[in-house]
Amino acid sequence: MKVVNALGRRKSAVARVYVVAGKGNITVNGREIENYFKEDTLRYIVNQPFEVTGTAGQFDVKVNVDGGGIKGQAEAIRLGIARALSEIDREAYRPALKSNGFLTRDARTVERKKPGQPGARKRFQFSKR
User: Fold this and answer.
1) For the chain, is the Cβ count within 10 Å smaller at the N or the C terminus?
2) pLDDT (tens digit, 9 = 90+) per residue, 27-67?
3) Residue 78 has pLDDT above 80, yes or no
4) Torsion on CA atoms 51, 81, 85, 94, rounded to nearest 10
5) Residue 11's closest CA among 93, 81, 106, 91?
6) d(Cα 47, Cα 53) in Å, to the nearest integer?
7) What is the pTM assigned to this prediction?
8) Domain ranges (residues) in the chain
9) Helix axes 70-88, 40-53, angle to 10 degrees
10) Strand partners, 60
11) Based on the number of CB atoms within 10 Å of its own CB, is 115 exposed (0-12), middle (13-18) or buried (19 or more)?
């Protein structure tokens, strides 16, 4: 099997994911997933596409991720893995991934700050006199 690559994004995090048949090793920025994501919840987020499709331990994943925070990076990796699995076998994996919402890019990002205001929505205190 050849290497399948996909791109995942979330907030300002961008993950380039390379999936190949293997033993289930996940490497993020040259480090093992246990060393990169210390929290169990973040590792769970990354492994969700494998759990849903029943392919845990069948693929090796190499990820280059940058930008954003740790949670945004984990969700970007999840999207990249889901897209790669969908590309590997559309008929088998795509329906399960799509029904769980793993193939949809979460478009919510931080709203920009507006001029003459302290933030995106916040206003300076109004003074009548």
Assistant:
1) C
2) 999 999 999 999 999 999 999 999 999 999 999 999 999 99
3) yes
4) 70
5) 106
6) 10
7) 0.91
8) 4-99
9) 10
10) 20
11) exposed
Q: CB of 54 within 8 A of CB of 89?
A: no
Give me 126's structure tokens: 């109004």
Q: Would you list the DSSP string of 65-129?
A: EESS-HHHHHHHHHHHHHHHHHHH-HHHHHHHHHHTTTTS-----PPPPPTTSSSSS--PPP---
Neighbouring CB atoms inside 10 A of 85's CB total 28
| Separation between Cα atoms, residue 15 and residue 81, nearest integer Å | 9
Say if domain 4-99 classifies as CATH 3.30.565.10. no
Tokens of 2: 């050849």
| Residue with the two structure tokens 């929290």 | 39
The DSSP element (H or E) to which 43 belongs, if any, is helix 40-53
